[in-house]
From TrEMBL:
It comes from uncultured Rubrobacteraceae bacterium. The keyword Transferase applies. GO terms for molecular function: ATP binding; glutaminase activity; phosphoribosylformylglycinamidine synthase activity; transferase activity. The lineage of its organism: Bacteria, Bacillati, Actinomycetota, Rubrobacteria, Rubrobacterales. It holds the Pfam family GATase_5. It catalyses: L-glutamine + H2O = L-glutamate + NH4(+); N(2)-formyl-N(1)-(5-phospho-beta-D-ribosyl)glycinamide + L-glutamine + ATP + H2O = 2-formamido-N(1)-(5-O-phospho-beta-D-ribosyl)acetamidine + L-glutamate + ADP + phosphate + H(+). Part of the FGAM synthase complex composed of 1 PurL, 1 PurQ and 2 PurS subunits. GO terms for biological process: 'de novo' IMP biosynthetic process. This is Phosphoribosylformylglycinamidine synthase subunit PurQ.
Length: 222
C-alpha cells in the first residue's frame, strides 16, 4: 500500500508521518505542494506544522496549493485522507471537514501529552480500535480549539462522527472534540499527533495503530 504525505512550505511533521507509515508496513510517498499529482497513492496524510507560515490563518493558504485540487477529488471519490493538527486545519479550510480550529481558549500555545478516547471507529484510520479505547498522544498547537455552530455540532454528535475526544481538554474545544470525520467517514481530522507516538524507541508506539488501521481497512495485514 502506498500512502502519500503532502509537503507544504512550513510543514514540520511530514518526516514523522513518513516514518510512521513505513513502520506500519506501507510505502511512504512525498507529495510536493506545487505538484498536482498524487502519484497513484492509496491514501493521503496531511501532516502538522505551519503551512505557509500560518499567514492569514492556519491552513488558509495551503488550501489553494496545486496538490489540494487532486486531494479534494481523491477525498470526494472516497479515498482515505487523514489530517493531523495543521493538516486538520487545512481540511476544514478546504471544506472537506466541517467547523474550524480557533485560537486556544487560554490564548497560549500548548505542547504536552493529552489523554484521549476513541469514539467512532468506523473509519479507515480507526478500524483497529474499539469504541472507548484510551491512549495518550502528543499535542502541539496554538489553534486547536474546535468550533462549529450548534446545528453542526449536534449533527456530528448524532451521526457518530466524533472520532476522538479529550479526557483532559487542553484548548477549550467544544464537547472536548479532538477529532472528527466527514459524512463518508473516509476523511478524518485529528489535533493530537499519532505520528509522534509511533515508535517505542522515541518514547511511545501507541499512535502507530492509526496508520496500521488504514492498512487493515484496505485488507492488508499490518
Amino acid at each position: 500500500m502506498r500512502i502519500g504525505v503532502t509537503v507544504f512550505p512550513g510543514s514540520n511533521c511530514d518526516r514523522d508521518a513518513l516514518h510512521a507509515i513505513e513502520r506500519a508496513g506501507a510505502t511512504p510517498v512525498e507529495l510536493w505542494h506545487a505538484d498536482a499529482s498524487l502519484k497513484g497513492v492509496d491514501a493521503v496524510v496531511v501532516p502538522g506544522g505551519f503551512s505557509y507560515g500560518d499567514y492569514l490563518r492556519p491552513g488558509a493558504i495551503a488550501r489553494f496549493a496545486k496538490v489540494m485540487g487532486s486531494l479534494e477529488e481523491f477525498a470526494n471519490a472516497g479515498g482515505p485522507v487523514l489530517g493531523v493538527c495543521n493538516g486538520f486545519q487545512v481540511l476544514t479550510e478546504a471544506h472537506l471537514l466541517p467547523g474550524a480550529l480557533l485560537r486556544n481558549a487560554h490564548m497560549r500555545f500548548v505542547c504536552s501529552r493529552a489523554p484521549v478516547r476513541f469514539e467512532s471507529v468506523e473509519t479507515p484510520w480507526t478500524s483497529l480500535f474499539e469504541s472507548g479505547d484510551q491512549l495518550t498522544l502528543p499535542v502541539a498547537h496554538n489553534e486547536g480549539n474546535y468550533f462549529a455552530d450548534e446545528k453542526t455540532i449536534a449533527q456530528i454528535e448524532d451521526e457518530g462522527r466524533v472520532v476522538l475526544r479529550y479526557l483532559e481538554n487542553p484548548n477549550g474545544s467544544l464537547n472536548d472534540i479532538a477529532g472528527i470525520c466527514n459524512e463518508g467517514r473516509n476523511v478524518v481530522g485529528l489535533m493530537p499527533h499519532p505520528e509522534r507516538a509511533s515508535d517505542p524507541a522515541l518514547g511511545s508506539g501507541e499512535g502507530l495503530k492509526v496508520f496500521e488501521s488504514v492498512l487493515s481497512f484496505a485488507g492488508i495485514k499490518a
